[in-house]
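Appendix B, Record 12. Input sequence as logged:
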Amino acid sequence: MTVLLESELICPECGHKTVEIMPEDACMYFFQCPQCSVVLKPVAGDCCVFCSYGSVPCPPVQQAIKSGMKTGCCR
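Logged structural output:
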């Protein structure tokens, strides 16, 4: 079961794309866009910015999906 640690975050304000390495053991609740400086926060129902704005969900959610669970989170 391979967990991807690289995700491309896309800023909803300006559309800027940046590739980030996700932490395996912690959530990332905030991320400041390097282009427009807006601070991204998870949308309601998501556990982190990667689940809301990333090309790949966070590692705990990936593991939950691969193991057949319906949800996973960084808690």
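The mean pLDDT is 90.
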